[in-house]
């Protein structure tokens, strides 16, 4: 039914959410003005694609491998919920699962994947699993240890994509949030380039297929590109209708990076009273026109920008809903409306990280 692990370009669907804030994980030191960079105008004028309702679109990495455009986000999925969520996702056509050490549920995800792949007769090479190395494991001698722990929890022999979760190194140890007596985080000063070289060795040793970045800004991306033997293939950052993150997305694409949006529906439950795109007329009217839900419209807006999405849900009906976005397309005018009608404000600032010189949100983008 599927190709090899490097070719997921035609994943067949059988037919066919929102999440609270990740205040501690989802979601440097001096601002630097952008130099000679003009975001491309293609964001609003991409041609309306041809499509089939039963075909999952993919994005190709610079290294030749492909990633499905829709994945299942797993943050806050409890052990008792994971099995049903993974089963529902696989039945709906998902083959992409997004995880992280700091979510605290990789063991449950690993158990669910192992059981479901066996009972549903799906091969490992036909799914795509992303994981992320946490801030307390960014020293070069800790990176492999972190990867091996995640592989053990996920019951896998390799990861399809491994990301540096944040460009913020913290004091190594078992405590994910090491703090001093005054309550501030205890930072580490490991250079990002040193961490990246350790990531490259994971590829050399076959533990991961591809490597990338999360929550990095333009300056930090450039630093990795200028000092890498194996280039990053993916950047995962916050993107939704309330924060289109256009400059960073366009810059990443200009570097050949694929881009993944976390919290693609804006995580409205995280900030009661904040503008909720799911209920705004500039989304609901478009949804009504196409006979789709507001969530489907917001996800379609992202994938039509060539952005991968990982909406989180443990509800089977919403899981199926979130992947059923390939049988319609938004017009250039509708794309522009969604891109310009929100409040254009980052949801996940993680201000506790501001004590670190590599805090990524001091820069413009």
Radius of gyration, in Å, reads 19 Å
Please give the largest β-sheet.
8 strands, parallel
User: Helical stretch count?
Assistant: 10
Mean pLDDT across every amino acid position: 86
**pLDDT < 50 runs, ≥5 residues:** 1-54
E-strand count = 12
The helix/strand order is EEEEEHEHEHEHEHEHEHHEHH
N- and C-termini, Cα separation: 41 Å
Structural class: alpha/beta
Domain NADP-dependent oxidoreductase: 69-339
Keywords: NADP, Oxidoreductase
Binding site for substrate: 165
Family: Belongs to the aldo/keto reductase family.
Notes on the protein architecture:
By secondary structure, the protein is an alpha/beta fold. Helices cover 31% and strands 13% of the residues. It has helices at 79-92, 106-119, 140-154, 192-204, 218-226, 246-254, 281-290, 294-303, 316-323, 332-341; strands at 11-12, 55-56, 58-60, 66-68, 72-73, 96-98, 128-133, 159-164, 208-214, 234-238, 258-262, 307-309. The strands form 3 sheets. The protein has an 8-stranded parallel β-sheet. The protein starts with 10 loop residues before the first strand and ends in a 24-residue tail after the last helix. The relative contact order is 0.19. Residues 1-54 have low confidence and may be disordered.
């Amino acid at each position: 039914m599927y190709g090899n692990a490097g070719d997921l370009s035609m994943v067949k669907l059988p037919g066919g959410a929102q999440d609270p804030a990740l205040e501690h994980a989802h979601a440097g030191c001096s601002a630097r003005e952008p130099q000679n960079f003009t975001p491309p105008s293609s964001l609003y004028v991409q041609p309306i694609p041809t499509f089939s309702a039963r075909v999952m679109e993919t994005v190709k990495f610079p290294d030749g491998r492909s990633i499905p455009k829709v994945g299942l986000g797993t943050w806050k999925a409890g052990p008792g919920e994971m099995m049903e969520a993974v089963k529902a996702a696989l039945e709906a056509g998902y083959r992409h699962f997004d995880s992280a050490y700091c979510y605290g549920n990789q063991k449950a995800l690993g158990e669910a994947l192992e059981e479901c792949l066996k009972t549903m007769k799906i091969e490992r090479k036909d799914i795509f699993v992303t994981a992320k190395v946490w801030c307390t494991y960014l020293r070069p001698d800790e990176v492999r240890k972190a990867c091996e722990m995640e592989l053990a929890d996920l019951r896998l022999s390799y990861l399809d994509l491994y990301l540096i979760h944040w460009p913020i190194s913290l004091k190594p140890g078992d405590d994910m949030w090491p703090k001093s007596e005054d309550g501030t985080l205890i930072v580490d000063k490991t250079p990002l380039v040193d961490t990246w070289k350790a990531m490259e060795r994971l590829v050399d040793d076959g533990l991961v297929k591809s490597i990338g970045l999360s929550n990095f800004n333009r300056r930090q991306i450039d630093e990795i590109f200028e000092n890498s033997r194996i280039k990053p293939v993916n950047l995962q950052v916050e993107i939704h209708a309330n924060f289109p993150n256009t400059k960073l997305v366009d810059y990443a694409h200009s570097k050949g990076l694929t881009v993944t949006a976390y919290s693609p529906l804006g995580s409205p439950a995280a900030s009661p009273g904040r503008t909720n795109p799911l209920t705004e007329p500039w989304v609901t009217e478009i949804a009504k026109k196409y006979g789709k839900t507001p969530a489907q419209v917001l996800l379609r807006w992202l994938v039509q920008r060539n952005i991968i999405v990982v909406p989180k849900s443990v509800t089977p009906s919403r899981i199926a809903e979130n992947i059923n976005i390939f049988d319609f397309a938004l017009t250039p005018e509708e794309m522009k409306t969604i891109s310009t009608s929100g409040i254009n404000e980052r949801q996940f600032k993680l201000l506790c990280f501001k004590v670190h010189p590599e805090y990524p949100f001091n820069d413009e983008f």
